[in-house]
Amino acid sequence: MIVEGVPPKWLEATSTALCDLLALRANWDSYGAPPIHAQSVVASIDLLRAIMPHDAPAPAVVPTSRGHVQLEWHRDGIDLEIEVRSLGKYLTFFESSKTGETWEREIAWDLSPLTHCISELSKP
Fold it and tell me: What is the rounded average pLDDT for all residues in the chain?
């Protein structure tokens, strides 16, 4: 990936956290979890590049017990959780106490719902 100018604020910490997940070995949670799938890490990076504006808040990067990556934002009454299973396969939960909107669904190639959620999270 080539980034011109100043990189987004969220890029360095998020990239480091994603790479750190690849070091987790089988049974990293002591309950038999598999290692994190490299395809989930790569898909997470691709997803973030597609939906994140330059000034968006960084997600928390969390391993799942199924070997996937979960990206989470909990900010100002908005909760967004995206389990990245593979490229084009994102299980998403969104809730806003501001608007009362709540939904959970699998998102594939139409990323507009995620772009909308990130936009809501990025508002001052």
Answer: 93
